[in-house]
């Protein structure tokens, strides 16, 4: 009788455990693992990875969905709350602390240890960015990136610049250095005068010297290269929430961008808040700051030769934010073990070598990078600006990783909207924004 009671209680506890998790982790038989990503340019590479993975794992079907960045994160959060999220999703350093703090991600550290995954194979310290101070892990690196100047080769030549000169520009917040002269020379009004002409008409510009994608409130491909090269830094270190958006050096940097807009050298915020890329490909902007993940887009979408130059060197030298994506498992997945097999495969040399051959991103493992470089070379693209920044000592810094990323994003988006639309001044707005951020912690 006691044995029967114990058996019943054990069964009840098992049912309760499965019910409380909301999902049953099915570990045998045919299973479909849902996977979502946001970058359409990378979709073909991951479809090939899925094909290879399914050939080796016939009981697992990988179902891939691609969603644009603008809908990706809100949709993912909504699906998590509703219990319908994908098993695995491409995650971002700015986003994962919020998901982790809400208990929405599987800690894969025990799986990494169990399966003896060698995390030393990943480049540039990427591995440590996905491991928390308390020993948990929410992803394995799949790629890395840096930022560079993307330029219209015909336009810089017409303005009298060579590729070598474009690669050796300097900048400061006082007079803009040679970089300001560079974008001034590339800015042309409707009468054909460039920004170096005293009669240049800043109100009627046919082509802007520079355009920026303003949708990233952390400024990865917008203000971060200038601000950090101006001896500024977001916080005091990894996972540190002591933001410095009120630092005079940062304020001076943002003010310089405002001044460039007023001079007619930088495309207006209203034209680029959502997407600056069409201005470049339609010849309405001669240059844009962007990441290595966009190399394929610019080279295939532009009806003119495209070049890539290193970022201008500020007082502290060349400074590019480096970021790295990883895949995370949703805690509500019914198929965590199969999801883990997929995540582990995507982080393997085999998968990253495959991704590299597509020439869309730089994988996190060196052999994959070599494949990517060969693919870019076959396309006739010189991407050394990105790789030199990544390998030169001191030229990169990591994406700020802190909690409350969503709330920080809301604060800074509203702040930059206000500044670049001319509603408020940079100094008072940034000081107020920084206080709001510090109050979150």
Task: Report on this structure.
This protein has 441 residues and is an alpha/beta fold. It folds into two domains: 28-144 and 324-364, D-Maltodextrin-Binding Protein, domain 2 (3-Layer(aba) Sandwich); 147-322 and 388-439, Periplasmic binding protein-like II (D-Maltodextrin-Binding Protein, domain 2), CATH 3.40.190. 43% of the residues lie in helices and 12% in strands. It has 19 helices and 13 strands. It has a four-stranded mixed β-sheet with strand order 2-1-3-11. Helix 2 links the parallel strand 1 (31-37) and strand 2. The longest helix has 20 residues, at 2-21.
Kindly list the characteristics that best describe this protein.
about 450 residues; alpha/beta; D-Maltodextrin-Binding Protein, domain 2; 2 domains; four-stranded mixed sheet; three-stranded antiparallel sheet; 19 helices; disordered N terminus
Question: Which topology of the largest domain does CATH recognise?
Answer: D-Maltodextrin-Binding Protein, domain 2
User: What assembly state would you assign to the polypeptide chains in this entry?
Assistant: single chain
Form type: globular
State the CATH superfamily name of the largest domain: Periplasmic binding protein-like II
The total of helices stands at 19
CATH architecture label of the largest domain:
3-Layer(aba) Sandwich
Low-pLDDT segments, ≥5 res: 1-27
- Give the % helix: 40-55%
Secondary-structure content class: alpha/beta
Total E-strand runs: 13
Output the CATH class name of the largest domain.
Alpha Beta
* Arithmetic mean of pLDDT: 90
Strand content: 5-15%
**Domain module tally:** 2
* Largest β sheet strand count, sense and barrel closure: 4 strands, mixed
End-to-end distance: 55 Å
């Amino acid at each position: 009788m006691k044995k029967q009671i114990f058996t019943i209680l054990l069964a009840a506890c098992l049912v309760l455990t499965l019910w409380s998790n909301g999902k049953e982790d099915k570990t045998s038989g045919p299973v479909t693992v849902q996977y979502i990503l946001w970058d359409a340019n990378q979709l073909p590479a991951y479809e090939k990875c899925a094909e290879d993975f399914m050939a080796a794992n016939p009981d697992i079907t990988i179902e891939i969905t691609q969603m644009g960045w603008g809908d990706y994160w809100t949709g993912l959060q909504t699906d998590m709350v509703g219990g319908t999220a994908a098993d695995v999703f491409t995650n971002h350093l700015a986003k994962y602390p919020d998901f982790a703090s809400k208990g929405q991600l599987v800690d894969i550290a025990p799986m990494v240890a169990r399966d003896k995954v060698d995390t030393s194979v990943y480049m540039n310290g990427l591995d440590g960015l996905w491991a928390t101070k308390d020993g948990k892990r929410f992803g394995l690196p799949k790629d890395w990136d840096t930022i560079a100047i993307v330029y219209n080769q015909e336009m810089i030549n017409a303005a009298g610049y060579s590729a070598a000169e474009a690669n050796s520009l300097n900048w400061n917040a006082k007079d803009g250095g040679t970089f300001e002269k560079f974008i001034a020379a590339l800015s042309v009004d409707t009468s054909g005068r460039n920004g170096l002409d005293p009669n240049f008409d800043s109100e009627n510009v046919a082509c802007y010297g520079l355009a920026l994608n303003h949708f990233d409130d952390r400024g990865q491909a917008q203000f971060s290269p200038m601000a950090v090269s101006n001896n500024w830094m977001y916080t005091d270190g990894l996972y540190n929430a002591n933001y410095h958006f009120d630092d005079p050096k940062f304020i001076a940097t943002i003010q310089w961008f405002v001044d460039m807009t007023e001079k007619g050298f930088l495309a207006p915020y209203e034209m680029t808040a959502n997407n600056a890329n069409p201005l470049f490909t339609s010849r309405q902007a001669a240059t844009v700051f962007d990441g290595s993940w966009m190399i394929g887009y610019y080279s295939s979408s532009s009806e003119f030769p495209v070049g890539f130059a290193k970022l201008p060197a500020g007082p502290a030298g060349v400074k590019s934010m480096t970021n790295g994506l990883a895949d995370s498992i949703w805690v509500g997945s019914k198929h965590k073990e199969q999801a883990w097999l997929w995540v582990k495969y995507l982080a393997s040399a085999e998968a990253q070598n495959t991704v590299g051959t597509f020439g869309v991103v730089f994988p996190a493992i060196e052999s994959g990078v070599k494949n990517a470089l060969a693919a870019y070379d076959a396309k006739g693209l010189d991407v050394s600006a990105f790789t030199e920044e990544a390998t030169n000592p001191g030229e990169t810094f990591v994406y700020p990783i802190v909690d409350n990323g969503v709330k920080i994003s809301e604060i800074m988006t509203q702040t930059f909207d206000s500044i670049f639309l001319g509603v408020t001044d940079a100094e008072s707005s940034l000081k107020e924004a920084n206080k709001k951020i510090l109050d979150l912690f």
